[in-house]
């Protein structure tokens, strides 16, 4: 049953007062003029809504100003809404801003809420506020800047969160709350790293690099046949060219029509297959409706050296297209191909060589069919390039579709869903580009395609075994928990974050010889270095350090079998060297330990001190080697199992926590 309790909603109501259309004859000399009683006169009233302000001001003379302000508030809130004069409405927004700015910070939000929810009641009171002239000039200057830079007209409303433009038509309060949580999480992470105040503001303004689980193919390849070009075709000559068009208000779900190749669709098809007609006709639909999308094709055709186009439909279509493109243009050649498919409607849009011949004879009667389609046709250029490019990309079975280089799923490639999938990606990309323009990382002087393809997730080949691995990052920020690397019993009960922090804090590194060089890349190699595979990984890492002048190398031990002094001889030597030796000597000694002959000699009974190199602190090394124990190796092995999810003896590499 409905609750009897009333629910109060914020806001205000509006009464529609129907005016009388009857004419009335009045003697204006007898009409009493209504005068607006000034607030100063009204404040002389002793009692307002039960408060005796005269008595209160006598008793509390030190609070006279506050009592007067409260009295004004009660008088205004008790009055009926009276119409304001036109001149009283001119500065209401400035007056509201002046009142908010003059209010203490802790009350400003409350006042803004009160004014916005009760504006009709507050309007008369606001009309009496004196506007700060300096603030008025500053607001007008800001309005000019916003209009020039972002196309925001005076009176328009925009919502920005840490510099991100939020489309209020697309976001609801719950999605905005989720965004605030993400921003708060980022700020908390920066705070935990010791970044505060103005430095945090600078970091938040940075445009973070795009690290996506999905990789994109570089579409700057000559094998792609583009049927249109937004930047050069006359069809789009009336469109604006500035990137700042992304910042202008637009209808929800629309894509700005900008004369730049920010949206690119590439279709890989075999014309001899039935699906090709649907995809070609869909591409034609997008083109003819002037969608701001550059469309390209990669035709996978017969790759034999000599092919008779009069017997192979795919080759015939390719040569006919090249002939029409040479006679007219690529765009017009594509329109003729669409007409060819349209004429085959009775055949369920399935073309044959005879359809190509008939069409050429009807539309281009002067063309010699054998010269165009025959074995030695001069219109056969780059026929095998499409198949070679397709093989190089590593894409799956045909058909394939790429939007700005990103492969679409098998379901999205279906002609039924492709149109919606492309349009949805265009809307998402427009939002990302809007942010890029706002942050200043995209401007009118940049090439659109180069900007898209220079992202760090653009690759020349899609290798699913390598690229489709989900990225994992270690949280190396320490909490209040402290533990020693050799205290295995305490380390055992720590969570993943604290275990990672303890390992990072105790890690020793091999660094470049020049101490002034900042190591921007931190590498951890994980292996059982008492096994040949682990020593090979160490040797390869040392070789990498020869040419990588901005890297530092750390070692994590992941023993295969039960840990004891006998089966950790090489690992203890590596650890003792890291703990006791200088950087230059450390490098040469690690190279010696990584050799198989050294490991074989040590396991056959030779003492490790016989392999010490000149310049080493031999006493410190031998003492550490003999007293190091196995607790550190147990701690490292537990870290590999619990945090890195590696089995004993399994190898791995951690680069900058990834």
UniProtKB/TrEMBL annotation:
One of its GO terms (biological process) is ERAD pathway. It comes from the Eukaryota. GO terms for molecular function: UDP-glucose:glycoprotein glucosyltransferase activity; unfolded protein binding. Residues 77-207, 218-466 form the UGGT thioredoxin-like domain. Residues 495-658 form the UDP-glucose:glycoprotein glucosyltransferase thioredoxin-like domain. One of its GO terms (cellular component) is endoplasmic reticulum. InterPro entries: UDP-g_GGtrans, UGGT_TRXL_2, UGGT_TRXL_3, UGGT_TRXL_4. It holds the Pfam family Thioredoxin_15. This is UDP-glucose:glycoprotein glucosyltransferase 2-like. It comes from Carlito syrichta (Philippine tarsier). The lineage of its organism: Eukaryota, Metazoa, Chordata, Craniata, Vertebrata.
């Amino acid at each position: 049953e409905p609750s009897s309790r009333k629910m109060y909603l914020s806001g205000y109501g509006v009464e529609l007062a129907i005016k009388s259309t009857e004419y009335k004859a009045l003697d204006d000399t007898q009409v009493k003029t209504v005068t607006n009683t000034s607030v100063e006169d009204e404040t002389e009233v002793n009692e307002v809504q039960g408060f005796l302000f005269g008595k209160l001001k006598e008793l509390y003379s030190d609070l006279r100003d506050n009592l007067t302000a409260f009295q004004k508030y009660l008088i205004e809130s008790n009055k009926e809404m009276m119409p304001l004069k036109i001149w009283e409405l001119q500065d209401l927004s400035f007056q509201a801003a002046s009142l908010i700015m003059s209010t203490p910070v802790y009350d400003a939000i409350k006042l803004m809420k009160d004014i916005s929810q009760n504006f009709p009641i507050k309007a008369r009171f606001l009309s009496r506020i004196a506007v700060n002239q300096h603030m008025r000039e500053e607001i007008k200057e800001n309005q000019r800047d916003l209009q020039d830079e972002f196309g925001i007209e005076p009176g328009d409303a925009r919502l920005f969160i840490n510099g991100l433009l939020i489309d209020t038509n697309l976001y609801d309060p719950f999605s905005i709350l989720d965004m605030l949580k993400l921003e708060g999480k980022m700020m908390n992470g920066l705070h935990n790293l010791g970044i505060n105040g103005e430095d945090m503001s600078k970091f938040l303004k940075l445009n973070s690099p795009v690290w996506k689980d999905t990789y994109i193919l570089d579409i700057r390849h000559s094998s792609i046949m583009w049927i249109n070009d937004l930047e050069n075709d006359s069809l789009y000559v009336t469109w604006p060219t500035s990137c700042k068009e992304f910042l202008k208000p637009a209808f929800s779900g629309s894509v700005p029509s900008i004369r730049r190749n920010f949206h690119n669709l590439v279709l890989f098809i075999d014309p001899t297959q039935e699906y090709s007609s649907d995809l070609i006709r869909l591409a034609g639909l997008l083109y003819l409706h002037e969608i701001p999308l550059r469309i390209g094709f990669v035709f996978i055709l017969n790759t034999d050296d000599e092919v008779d186009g009069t017997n192979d439909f795919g080759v015939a279509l390719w040569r006919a297209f090249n002939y029409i493109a040479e006679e007219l243009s690529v765009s017009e050649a594509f329109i003729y191909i669409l007409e060819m498919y349209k004429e085959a409607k009775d055949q369920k849009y399935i073309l044959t060589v005879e359809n190509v011949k008939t069409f050429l004879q009807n539309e281009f009667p002067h063309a010699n069919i054998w010269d165009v389609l025959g074995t030695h046709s001069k219109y056969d250029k780059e026929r095998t390039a499409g198949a070679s490019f397709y093989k190089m990309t590593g894409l799956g079975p045909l058909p394939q579709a790429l939007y700005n280089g990103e492969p679409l799923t098998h379901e999205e490639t279906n002609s039924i869903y492709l149109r919606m999938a492309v349009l949805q990606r265009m809307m998402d990309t427009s939002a990302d580009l809007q942010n890029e323009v706002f942050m200043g990382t995209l401007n009118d002087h940049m090439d659109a395609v180069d900007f898209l393809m220079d992202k760090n997730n653009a690759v020349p080949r899609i290798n699913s075994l390598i690229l489709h691995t989900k990225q994992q990052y270690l949280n190396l920020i320490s909490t209040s928990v402290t533990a020693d690397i050799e205290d295995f019993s305490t380390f055992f009960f720590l969570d993943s974050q604290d275990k990672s922090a303890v390992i990072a804090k105790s890690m020793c590194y091999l660094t470049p010889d020049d101490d002034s060089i900042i190591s921007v890349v931190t590498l951890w190699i994980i292996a059982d270095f008492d096994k040949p595979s682990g020593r090979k990984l160490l040797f390869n890492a040392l070789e990498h350090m020869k040419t990588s002048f901005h890297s530092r190398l750390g070692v994590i031990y992941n023993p295969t079998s039960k840990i004891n002094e006998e089966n950790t001889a090489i690992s203890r030597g590596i650890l003792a060297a890291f703990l006791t030796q200088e950087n230059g000597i450390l490098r040469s000694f690690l190279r010696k330990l990584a050799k198989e002959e050294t490991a074989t000699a040590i396991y056959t009974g030779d003492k490790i001190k016989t392999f010490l190199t000149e310049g080493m602190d031999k006493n410190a090394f031998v003492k550490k080697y003999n007293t190091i124990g196995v607790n550190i190796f147990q701690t490292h092995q537990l870290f590999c199992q619990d945090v890195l999810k590696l089995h004993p003896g399994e190898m791995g590499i951690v680069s900058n926590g990834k």
